[in-house]
Design goal:
With 87 residues, the protein is mainly beta. It contains one helix and five strands, in the order βαββββ.
C-alpha cells in the first residue's frame, strides 16, 4: 500500500533537518530496498509525498539538487525527499 502525505515542499526539507533523516540528494545514500518518500512529477507544486520501497535508481549523477530520481516497487517514479530507513 502506498502512503500519501501532503507537505509543502519547504516543510519536507524542514522535516529532514528536524529529524536528521537523509534528504535524498546524494546517490551514495540510496540503494535498492530502502523505504523512501518521493515527490511525483505531478505533485511537485503541492509537495505531496509518496512513500515506497526503491526498486531502481534512475539518476546517473552522484548528486542532484532536487533529489535523486528513483522508481519504486509499485512502478511510480519521482525524486527522493526523505530516506526513512537504512538496510
Amino acid at each position: 500500500m502506498v502512503e500519501h502525505r501532503k507537505f509543502p515542499a519547504r516543510d519536507a526539507n524542514q522535516i529532514n533537518r528536524n529529524f536528521s533523516m537523509t534528504d535524498g540528494t546524494k546517490r551514495s545514500a540510496l540503494q535498492r530496498g530502502l523505504k523512501v518518500s518521493i515527490v511525483l512529477k505531478q505533485d511537485q507544486q503541492s509537495g505531496k509525498l509518496t512513500t515506497g520501497i526503491v526498486r531502481n535508481i534512475l539518476t546517473k549523477s552522484a548528486t542532484h539538487p532536487y533529489g535523486i530520481k528513483v522508481r519504486l516497487e509499485n512502478g511510480l517514479v519521482g525524486r527522493v525527499k526523505i530516506i526513512h530507513s537504512q538496510k
